[in-house]
Amino acid sequence: MELDELKKVWKNEQPDPQWEYSRAELLMLLNNKVISFEKEVQSRDKLEILACIIVVIFFGVTFFLTSSIWQRTGSAILVVAAGFICYRLYATSKRSADKDHSKDQTMADYLKAELEFVKRQKQLLNNIFWWYILPLTIGLLCFAAGFQISPVYKYGYMGVVLLIGAIVWKLNRNTAAQRFDPLLTEIEDALHLLEENE
Q: Which domain holds residue 132?
């Protein structure tokens, strides 16, 4: 059952003994989707933070070992970028301190909190170019500028970095539209129907 069926059940003017059961069942299905989404976000954040730690360690050590000013600059940018990425992921996923986890919390309040959470995650992906791709790309390009190799290989590497950045940007924009928009619509529909039937 999906929220279209929920609308039919809630808009039915005749009392139905299964009305409460259907409403609870459909809200449980939506709740399961939200919980699944939160688990995906947590898994993504853990992997990204692990990758950032590796970047900090590798380029932090490289900063002190290399004599190239370009590679030192690139390493510094990458370390700072990795730290900022961790911060953005944490800040976006953090729940507000006043979120009510008690049994007294209404379904509408719960759905409103989840709606805000999903919106923040969508905005995070929509702005991924500025907080993720751009700083990492600049750091990698500066680092590559210090390579003592043939210009053909150096510029080839830089081209690959730019291509990967463009692909990551495009994939994340598509994910934001395909994964987040349907969930946002379902939560908004459920909220609207809850408000109609108060």
A: 3-196
